[in-house]
Amino acid sequence: MKISDTQFDKLLALQSAQDIKNQLALRSMVPSPQQAGKLRRHLATLGEARAVRLGIVHTYTSELLDPWLHFSAALNGLSLDIYHAPYGTTVQEATGQSGLCQHTPDVTLLLLTREDLHPALQAPAACINAADRQDIQAQATQALSGLVRQFRAAVAGHIIVTVLPAQPPPGLGLYDVMAEQSEYQWWNQIKGDITRELREQFSGVSYLDLDQLVMQCGRDNFFDARLWYSSVFPYAADGGLAVANAVTTLAASIHHTRAKVIVVDADNTLWGGVIGEDGINGIALGQEYPGRAFVDFQKRLLSLQQRGFILALCSKNNPDDLNEVLLNHPHQLLKNEHFAAQRVNWQPKPDNLRAIAEELNLGLDSFIFVDDSDYECSAVRHSLPEVDVIQVPSRATDIPSCLDALARLEIVSLTAEDLQKTAMYAQERMRRTQLEQLSDTGGSIEDYLQSLNMRMTVRLDDASAVARLAQLTQKTNQFNLTTRRYGEKDIAGMIDAADFSVYHFSLEDNFGNSGIVGLAIVERANGEQARLDTFLMSCRVIGRMAEQAFLSTIVRNLGSAGVQALVAEYIPTRKNILVEHFLPENGFAVAENGVYARRLDAGDAGEPGKDFPIIIEGPL
Amino acid sequence: MSAFTQLQDIMAAALEIPADAIREDSTMEEIEEWDSLGHVHIMVALEQAFDLYMDVEDFAELDSVPAILQYLASENAA
Asked: Tell me, what DSSP letter sits at residue A480?
């Protein structure tokens, strides 16, 4: 939709890129080139953009996407340096001396067509018989997989794969979906094979589904036949903006600090009205409008939890009033167990957010705060500028989608840990209760740790954990000696490399299994000396001596492999003061230039005299 | 705003060049940025600015400022 002058003035008055992005998304607004230029200049005044190098390999014209890419990059807090490969080249660009490799892209975008996967896909699908289809499907998947493999080997950084959707409607028209030889169904099967292959065989590779964007824009708004026939450029303005926006949103989700926690308000956010005034029967939540919109918003929040984000509740209310809704309202979807932390009181919200951050042991820069009130939003913006603030729209119809345009809520992989996150925080609450009960009866911390019955499993060079290990390097800020960030490709490379050992551990106790929460990367420079490149642990398991148990297992393992000394370093950041003394406290002596070293040849490479209340298995 | 100054702004944004680089008699050959890609940018921008739907055949003919101005006048656009 075009942007009128009045609408445009309102956009220019907004003071955050996210608000502008939300408004554009909410009303499907597409700026003219002049408006896009003005908005870009306005966005440049609102904050620093992060530079990202984008490489585009394409078998149709891609240069016309540039204005949309630059514009949507600005919306997502990025500035792009774009390289376009020569028209129509693909594998040629995956070699060391290619323009693409010279560009050293942070993100590589492959713009392919169906025919690139298999020449038979040029013909109408209805003309291809069932027996041939299976072969073509397998060959198309292998062709794409082979191509991605070459690029994966040639470039670091993330790879985004796209396949241009069919421009005409399916060959069999409205009947297509019913037909045995349906083109639509077949393409979805092919796509299923392709995405499974990419998910299982590669790391740092995303398939961006342009079919979804066609649905969002509508086929007629997505494509422009005139530009296709005259310039081999398929996209109309809506389509070009949608593609650019999806690409830059993915790039932003990779390059910005990851969000972890969504803190929601209750009144006029989870339901319409004010529970303290309207009562449980008076709030809007249910099958009628506007209550339905709030039910839908709660469903969206549950989906975000399934993406791995932690939900927390922060509301100015009497706890009993609010709890009654959570327990007894028939349409309330979010219950106590969905919230990893709750602050229902009359304290200022910035204080409550700080308290939640402390309770969850997570940095405030990983918080997204969602509230309807002008006052609360500006209070948090003012006191805690590191928190992303999303103000709930005033129109109830706009509320369910108000978090859809947030790049920081997009994910590029999904691990088992993500899905269990809130359950793990609930387990942590139970552990705290047990600790409190024990100390009330005079028990010590040691008694508490013993009572947990902890079992640690250490694994070495476990290729199945690449996604989680990369994620740990990206997300762990506090218990992290060196804060080196690695992509999935880097981790996979170190697992394969003979001179690197990648250890990880998971910890199980009476309350549950932590999943993979610790990572150590050791480089063996020569036979006798090793270097501790990375040593980190999720804050989820802090205070249970897991870090010492993990380190001693590694030390023992290296010692038995003939390593005589382990050197390590502490690289201070704003956030890792927690581990400032970890090395000297664990047998490392200060060597030169702030580097620490520990001898491993003292016979017993373990920690003499130190007993862990943990049964250790591994490294496996 | 005259039709020409309006067009000047649109073309400047589309080609990412200063407005005064576009004169009332400029042609595609004279302006370096006005290459085939730049031309498509201008056409798309004109459609959006004046609510037009142009034919592919028109694209090729509108290769100078006078040609575009004449076209806009004939469409009662500017």
From this structure: B
